[in-house]
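Troubleshooting entry. Yesterday's outputs looked truncated, so today I'm pasting the complete records for two proteins to confirm everything comes through intact. If either block looks cut off, that's the bug. Protein one:
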Amino acid sequence: MDELNLISYNARGLRQNKKRRRLFSYLHRRKVDVIVLQETHSVSSDESFWTNEWGGTIYFSHGSSESCGVCVLFKPHLKLNIVKSYSHNLGRCVILDISLLEQTVTLVGIYGPNSDNPLFFREVAEIMGDFTCNNIIMCGDFNFVFNLDLDKKGGQARTNFRARNECLTMMTNYNLVDIWRERNPLSRSFTWSSNITHNIYCRLDFFLISHHLCHSVSNTSQSPGLQSDHAMIFLSYKLSNEKRGPGYWKLNNSLLNDQVYIDLISNIILEMCEDPSYENPSSLWESLKFKIRGASIKYSKSKARERCLRESALIDKIARLEHELFVHETEEIREALREAQNELLLYYDQKLQGTIIRSRARWVEQGERNTRYFLNLEKRNKSNNTIYKVKKANGIISSDNHVILNEIKSFYENLYKSEHCSPNVVFVDLPRKGLSREDAMTCEGILTLDECTKSLLSLSNDKSPGSDGLSANFYKKFWHLIGNLVVNSLNYSYLNHHLSVEQSRGIITLIPKPDKDTTLLKNYRPITLLNTDYKIGAKTIAARLKNVIPKLISSNQTGFIQGRFIGENIRYVLDLIDHSISYNIPGFMLMVDFEKAFDKLDWGFIRKTLAFFNFGDSFLNWFDTLYSDGTACVCNHGYSTGFFPIHRGVRQGCPLSPYLFILCAEVLSLYTNNSKNLKGIVIGGQETRLIQYADDTTFILDGNRNSLEEAIRILNVFKLSSGLTVNLDKCNLFPLGPYIRRQPAFIKNIAITVSLGPVTMLGITFTNNGDDLFRLNFLPKLSRLKSCLGLWSTRDLTPVGRSIIVKTLALSQLVYLFLVLPNPPQSFIKEVESLISNFIWSGNPDKIKRTSLLNNIDEGGLKVKDITTFMHSLKSTWIGRYCSNTKGVWKAFFDQNLAAFGNDLIIHCNCRQVDISRVPNIFVKQVLSAWVEASYHYPMDNFGNQVIWNNHHITINNKTLFYDFMYYNGVKFVSDLFDNMGNPLNFDSFKQKFNLNAFPFTLYWGSLIVFQEDGERLGVALRKFRTKLVFGYKRPSMRPRSLNSFTIKLSRKLSLNLLPLRSGVMKLYTLIHITGKIFGICLGSRCGRLKCRIFSFDFCIESCLQIDYCFLWVKSIQICVLFVRLRRRILITCFGDAAIHQSLY
C-alpha cells in the first residue's frame, strides 16, 4: 500500500437496513481504505451485526438509536495494527493510533455538538495528549464554519463561535491545518445544505491534518452524499513513494455470463482453428490464449468504461445542479436535482442487486439457504499476504519493496536450486516392490480427450489462475471449442519432452504460517498458481497414478490414499501411549520434521523412485515434461521478482505432487523396515517401526539405544539420497512406558528435544496422560465454537438460517475431535447443546422442545443435529474402517481389545452395552457402544443366519457367549448346526463338518420333536423358517406397554402345571435363561396357557414381544435348546450330554 484513502461522511442515520447496505456497497466499490461516519445512530447491540455486514473492522462510539454515533470502518484488505483506541461515551468521537507501514497515524473522527459547546473540543484535545499525535488526521462534521464569508451562504451570520475558537486553539497546539482550505484559499464550496430552509449552505465537514503531512496529501475533494444532507469528503494521503504494482492479469469470471463476450471469444476460437499457418499444436494454442487475453482485456475495459461513465455523469450532474441551485435557487432546479439523486440511488441499488444475484444469495436477513455466499460471509476478513518488512541475512529489517523483492527472489532461487544428491544410496539391497506390467501400462501413453474432460470437471471454480490469467471457469465454458486444442498441445509437449514457456510457468503466492515471525521468509508456505492447461495435464496423469498407488504404498502411510484417514495415525499414537503405560513397555516415538519437504525433494531421486516401482518410460517422460524447464516468480505488492528456474521439489499446487511425494516417502518406509539394527514395537504380533502422513513422519522405536541411533542414521542416508533435510530443532523424542518416569542416560547425547508433552501432531495435542486430551483439545475448540456463534448471534437470522450456521460452521469445529478422541464428558455436551439452543432462539426461551428440533422442517423441526447422536455416528465410522480389507497398524489395538469377542465378529452380533463394558480400551469401547446404539437389533430375514455368539438373546447368567474353539473352526450361525433339510447334525457329522476331532467333550445330537395341538408330528425344514425383522430399531417410546418381565424361583421336585399368560399368547413368546444343571421343557397350547414339565432347575421367564425364536447354549452341561414359533406351534430341538439326556415327552 502506497496511499491511504479516507472518506468522512455524515450519514444521517444508518438504522434502516436498505440505506446502510446501499452505503456499504457503495463504499466497497470505491477505492478507499478508511471511512469515518458520523450520525450513525448505532447502539452497542449493533456492533457484531454491522461489523459482519461490513466485512472489515469497525470502531464505534455509540450514541442512541435516534441521534449521534461515530464509527471508523476499515476495508477488509487493509493490513494495519490498532495500537490504542478511545470511544466517546456519548457518540461524539473516536480516536485511534494506527500503525501502518512503520508509521503511526492518529486518526480522530468527530461529530461536533449542535450547541455551541467548547468543552467538547477541550476534552478531545486533552484525550489526544495520551496518543502519539506525530501524524494527525482529524475529520468529521464539526457543526461550525471557520469563515462566515467563504464557508456559509444564507441564514444568519453566525455559527458556534466558542466551539470554533476552542478548535482553533487545538489546531494551534497540535499544528493542524484545514487541508481543503489550504489548497483552495478563496473557493466557496459547501458540504451541507438545509432540507428545511432551502437557502442555507455551510461547509461543516473538513479534514484537519498535521502541517508536515500537507506535502503527502495527493487529493482532497468532495462528492454528493447518499440520502443525506451532507456531502462526502475525501482525502488521499501518500504513505510512501512506492506505488502498488499492476499485478498480473486475471479474467473476470463474470464475463462468462455475458453473451456478447461469449460470442466474441467463440468467433476468435473458430477463426484461429481455421488458420493453417501455425507450425504445431502448441504454438497454435499459445497464440490463441494470447489473442483471447487481448480481446478480454479490451472488452473488460470498454464495459467498465461504460459503467463508470454513467456513474460519473450522474455524479457530475448532481454536482452541477447543486451549484446551480446555490447560484439560482428555483423549484425547477430543485426538482431536477431530486430526480438526478433518485436516479443515482436506483443505479446503486441495481448494482447491489446484481451482486446479490451473482452470488446466488440474499442478504442474511432473508437468506436461509446453504449457499457459498451465505457461509463465507465471515471469511471476508482474510489476511493480506503482502510482505511489508523482511529480515535480511545480516539481521537488518527492511521495508523497501525493491529490497524485499530481491530478498524473496534470492531465497527461493536458493530453495529451488538443485544440490548434489546420491539417489542410488538408499536403494542398495532394498527389497524390490513394484507394479505389475499390466498396472504400469495403465499409466502410460498420451492423454485422451475423455481423460482431460474428467480432469477439468474435477477442478474447482473461482480459483486464482496461473500466469495466463484464464481460470477453470473459462475452460469449462469453452471446452467444446478448445478441448481438442488443449489435449493436442499437451500431447505435443509430451512427445517433445517439454512444455511451452507459458505452460511451465508458475506464480508463487506466500501464505504466512500462523504465529510465526512474518519478517522471516522461511515462515511462509509457497503455493504455486499454475495455468489451467498445465493442471489438466497433471491431474490426468495423477488420476492414472491414483488408481495404482495403493498397491505400492504401505498401510503405515495414510496421506493422499483413498480410503485412508489421518485419524488412523492419531489413534495408533494415543493407543500406543496407553498400551506402553499399561504393560510397562519401554520405547520412543521420534517425531521427525523435514525442512521444506515438498520444495527440497531431488528430481533425480524421484526418477529413481519411479523406476524402482516399475513405472515405464512413458510415465517417466510425463514427469520430465511436466517438471523440467519449470520457472516461477513471486509477486509482492503487485510487483514480480521476475521468473527464475526450478530445479527440484514438487510444486504445492500441482495435482501430481502429493502422489510423487508419498512414493518417495514410501522408500523411507521400506528402507526403515529393511534395517537389521532398528527394532519397533510389537502389538498383537505385528511390529511397527514407522507411521507417516505425507511428510509427517514418526519412528516407533523399542527403546534400545541402537534403534534410536539407527533411526538417525537412516534419516541421514535418506537426506543424502533425496535431499530432504531434518530440522532437528523441531523434532521431538517422546518417551513411552517406563521411560516416561525416567529416561535412559543415553538420550542425553542425542541432539533431539525430549518431550513429555504437550506435543501437537496432525492437529491433536497430547501428553503422556490421556486425561489431558479433553483439556488440550476440546476446550480450545469450545472457545472457537463460542466465537463462531457469537459472530453470527446479532445477525437478524430466522431459526432456519441459524440452524444452517450450527450444522455447517459451529459443529464442524468438533468433527475431527469427535472422530479421533474419546468422548468428552456429558457436561461438555450439555454446554454445547445449551449454546446451540440459545443461539437458535437468540437467547430467548425455547419455542419448541429441544428434541423436536431434530425433526425435519416439514415435521416442525429444524434438522438440528443431536450432539450425542452426531458424536456416536462419527465414532461408528471406525467400524467400517475396521471391517474393511485395508490394512492399518491401528487395527492391532482393536484386535487386541476385541479378541475375546472374535474380533470383527462382534460387529455382526446382537450384543448389548453391558457386554461391551468388558472392553478395556475406552475409545474402542465407545466405538462399539456407538455401533450397538445405532444397530442394537441386527436386521435378519432368515432364521438360519442368526449368529450364535455375542447374542443378547443367548445368555448364561445374563452373559453372552463366545467359544473361540468353535468359532474359529467355523461354527457361527444357527444353520451351521443343521443339515440342508433343516435336521440337526449328529455328532459325527458335526465333528466332520467342522474338523473338531479334538473336541474337549462328547456331544451328540438329540431328536427333533414337534408338539402340536392334535399331536401330529410336524416336519418342516429349518431353512424355510422366516422371521419378522425382530431386530429392527425401535425407539423406547414406541415399545408396547404390555411388555413385562418377572422371575420365579422353583425348588427341587416342584411341579409347575399352569402358567397363566395374557390372552394374546400367540403373540407372546418365552425366553428362558437356564441356570441349573437339569433340563426342563416348555409345551405350548392355544388356550392361552403354557404347560411345562419340570425336573429341577432355577429359571427366569421373561415375556417379550416380537421375539420369534431363542437359541440357548448352556456351557456347564453342554445343553443346547432351540425354541422356534411356527404359526400356532412350538418347535423344540434338544441336544446335550449323554450322561444327562432324558426323554422329555
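Protein two, checking that the full record survives here as well:
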Amino acid sequence: MNTPHDQSQRDRFIHELERNFSVVASAGSGKTRAITDRIVALAQHPRAAEWLPSLVVVTYTNRAAAEMQQRARQSILEAGVKLEVINAFNRAFFGTIHSLCLKLLRQHGHYLGLPAQLEHLNEDDDAALWTEFVQSSTAIGAGLDPEQRRALLRLTPARRLLDLGRRGHITEAVPAPGPFPKFDFEPIYAFVPKKVSQVTAARVQEAMRRWETAWEGDDFVGALPGCKCAPLKPIWEAAIVPIVEWRRCAALHVAAEISQAYREFRLGRGVMTFSDQIALAAELLRHPEAAQRIRAKQYRVILDEAQDTDPTQFDVLLEVARPVEATGPWPSEETHPPLPGHFCMVGDFQQSIYGARADLAHYRRVHQAFLRTGAGEEVIFSVTFRLDRAGIEFANAVFPIVLHGLERQVPYVALYPRPTAFPGQIVRFDPKAGPEIIAERALKNKEYWEANNLAHWLREVGLEKLRASSWREVALLCPRTRWLPPLRAALRSVGLKAQVQSERSINGDSPAYAWFTALATVLAEPRNGFEIVGVLREIFGLSDHDLAAFSEGYGVRFHLTAPTGRGGPVAEKINLLVALREQARSLPLFSAMEEMVRVTQLRDRLLSLPADEYEGLGFELEELLTKAATAEAAKGTLENFAAELQSEFHAARNVRGALPDAIQIISGHKSKGSEWEAVIIPFFARGAKTQSPVYPRLLRDPRSAATIAAMESSDVDGDLKTAVALQEQQELERLLYVALTRAKHTLVLVDDRALFTGKKGLPERSQASRLRCGQGEENAAAFERLPTKLSACTETAEHHAQKAIVRSQEMILPLPTLPAKALKASRERAAVFLKRNPSALAEAALAEADPAAYVAAARQASSAPNAGQRYGTWWHNFVEVLDWSAPVASWDRTFETHLAGSPDPDRSHHDWALLRTQLTSDSDLTRLLAGPGTLAHAEMPFLWAMSERECLDGIIDLAVYDRQAHRWTILDWKTNRVPPSRSHYLPQLSAYWKAASEMLHTPVAAGLYITATGQWLPYEESELAGAWDALSRNSAALTEALEDDRGD
C-alpha cells in the first residue's frame, strides 16, 4: 500500500473547492503540502482567474506565508497553467492576520474616520504616549454614576484601573454594573473556631471589622482583607461574593472605557499597535456599508495554525467570507455562515499551547458551529510524515491517557505511519544518579550534573546510533528557557558545538545591541545623564563609589557638552566621550559609529565576555555597523539612528539560522513547527516552578468564557483558581505532546526520576508527571519498557546517504535548449532586467558612507598606475589553475611557471609563502581547500533571478564543496589592503552568499583570504544574512554597484 491511510480525507480537502473544511492536522501530517495542493487545484479550475485574486492565505508568521506562497507558485508553474492564471495568483494575499487587517484598514478605514497614514507603535515602547494620555485624561470611570464611581475608587486605586485599561485590549463595550451591593459579614463574626484556629480566625474577624468600619466613612479603604484561616474560608468567600463580583464588573467596565479611549488617543496621534489593527478591522466589519463592500470581493480564506487564533481574529476572518447580506456576528447568529468554499481552517487542538494569546475554547466552538450548522465539514489528517513507527506506537500508547477529552481537555487523535516509515527508536536514558547527587539539596548542582552526564553520553554514542545525518539534526528540548544554558555549557565542555534558541530574546538582551545603543544615545543626547551614568558603569566598568565621588550629589555633572576640569577615572572617561562626540558630529553616520567602536574599544569589551553565555557578539556588532551604513544611505542622522535603536530595544531578536554541526537547544514552545532527526528530552522529571500572577489582570473563566477583571488575588475565588490551574496544566500536557512529536527517527527521554523525585513522589509540574510516569501511574509500565540503548539502523543510514546524493545532484541544474524565438526575445528585452554585480558592492557601500572619499578614490583609480589591478589579475590567474588536491611540489611548480608573468615578483614570493604555509599546516584553510572529500571550482560564474525584473550575476573566485558535510564555502581573494572594518567587503560577500544559498539549496559559508597578511577571514552566517537583509531593502546601494569591479 503506497497511499497514506487518510488519503481520501486529503483528496476531499484538496479537490472539493466549493466546500468549507475544518482540518484537524496532527503533528507532521503535511498540512502545508495539503494547503498548497488546494491552491494549485484552485489554479487549475476553469474559474481560476476569477477566484485567485480573492484568495486570502493567513499564516502565523510572514516567513511561513512567504514559504507557502513560493511553494504554491512553483507548483502552479509546474502545472503549466495559463499566463492569466499566474497573473491572478500574483494578486492573492499571503500573510499574517495583522497584515490582512492593515490591508483592510488602508482600503476601507475612511468608514471609521481613520487617518490616511498610521505608523506602527510597539506596545512595549509607549511610555511617553501613555504619560501624555494620562495627563490629558480628566476623569476615570466617566460611564459610572457618581455613587458607583465613588465606591469603585474607594475599593481600587486609580492607578490599577489605568494599568488594566492600558494592557487589557478590551475591544467591546462592557455593561455598567448595578448599584453597590449590600453585604453582611455577620456569618464571619459569628464563626466559632476550634482551638487550633482561634488565633488566625480572630485576626481575620478583626481585620474585617476594621474594613467595615472604614467603609462607613468616606476615605479610601482598599481591597478586602484576606483569609488565612482554612475552616473560616468558605464562610468568608460566601460573605464577600457580592462585593467581589460588583468590583470585578465595575473594574471591567472602566478598563474597557480606558482601553477604548487610549486607542482613540493613539489614532489621534497617528499611531496604532498590532492589537489596534485587529480591533479596528473587527469594527470595520461591523460597519454596514464597509462590511458589504469587503464581502463583495468574495474572499476565499485559508487559515493556517487555527489553534493559535484569538476570538477577535476569528471574527475578522469569518466575517470577510460571509455573504454580502449577512448581519450580526457568526456563529452567534447562525444565519448566513461563510459562503461554501470560502473558508477553510487548518489546525490541531492537541497543539494549542499559546493560551496567553489564543483561545482554544473559542476555536472549538467555531469548529463545532461549522459541523452543527452544516456550514463546513471536518476532515482529519492522521498520517504523520515525520515520526517513524516506534515514535507513533509510543505516542498512541501513552497520550490517550493524557489527552483524554475530559474536563475541557482535548481528545487524542491516533497517529498512523506513512507508507515508507522507518523503524525508528524511543530510548530511555538513565544517567545513573548516585546517592550523593540524589541527596544534593541544591537544584542547580543536580541540573549541571545531569547536563554533564548527558553531554558525555551524546559524544560517546555519536551520530550513527542517534540515526542523525549531522549534529545540526539533533535537538534538546526543555519546557523552560532558563534550563537551556547549562546544557550548552556541558556540550561545549566535551567538544560538541551547541546553539541555544530562545523565543523570549529581545534585542536589548544582547550586550552588543545594548552597549552600542547606549553609546549612540549619549552621543546624540549629550545631556542624558541617566544613559551617561549607565555607559560609565556598564561599559567602562566604573564603580558606584567613583561615580558618586565625581557627582557629589549633582547629577547635572554627567553631560557631554564640554570637557570637565575635574580629575579621576570618571572625568577621564567623560572627556573621552566629549572628544568622541565632537569628532562624530563632523563625520558621516557610518564613520562616526566606526570611530565610536574604535575609541571605546567596544569590540574588545564585548569579546571579553564569556563566550559560553554570549554567542556571536562580534558578528552582532558588525550587523549594527551595517545598520548604520543603511541608515546613512537613507540620509539618517545620528539623532534619528539612536532613536531607531532605542525604539527597537524591546523588539524580538531576529531568528538565527541553525549553525552548521551545532546541536540545537530550544524551548518546547519554540520547537513547534520544527522537526529534527533526533530529539532528546532532558530534565524529564524536574519540576517547573511557576510565578505568582501579577495583578491587576484580565483572565477568561475556562468554565463560561467570561472575561474577569481581577484587581487582587481575592477576586479569584477557589473554584475559579482551580479551573484556571487545570487549564494551565492541560496546556502543559499539550506542550508535552508537541515536544514528543518533533523527532523523525530517534527520541531520547532522560529518565532522571531518581534524581528529582521527592518524598511526595514526582514533582507535579514535571514532564514525567504529565505523562503519568510516576510509580503506579497509568503510563509507568510503558515508560519502563522502553529500551535503554541506542542502535544504528542501516535502512535509515541508507536513506541519509541517498538524500545526500540527491542534494548534490540538485546542485547541478541542466540548462534546457531554448528555441531561437525565445533567444531572440531575451536579447531584445535584456535591457528590461536590472543587473546586480556583487563584486562592486564594497564600492557602493563606500559611496554611501562617504561620497567625498568615494569620488577621491575614483579619481585616484582613474589617474594612478594600475599596478595593483594587474597584480590582482595575475594572482587570480595563478590560483585559478592550482590543483588543490595535488601534492605541495605540484603547487610550487605551478607557482614558478606563473611567476614570470607577475608585475611584482617580490610580492608574489611573499604572498605565496604565506598561502603555502597556511596550506601545509593544520589550519582551517587547509581543511577547507585540501580536506578529504572536497571539490573546488575556481572562477565559478552564476546568474540568479532575484525577482521577476532583477537578476544578480557574478563570478565567485573559489567555490569549495565538502561532500561529507554537504556544504559549500565561497572564498574571495583580496590582494589589496583590507580596511580596518570587516564590513567593507561584507555587502559583496553577502550577495555571493545569498545567490549561492538560493541556487544550491544547501548551507553556504563565505569568507575572505587576504594575500598580504595570509589571513583567512570567514563571515558568520548571521552576519551575511543581516548584511543582505539591509542591502536588499536599499535599491540605491544596489544601483551604485552596477559597475564592474576594478580588481582586488
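Both blocks look complete. Sanity check on protein two: The CA atoms of residues 15 and 41 lie 6 Å apart.
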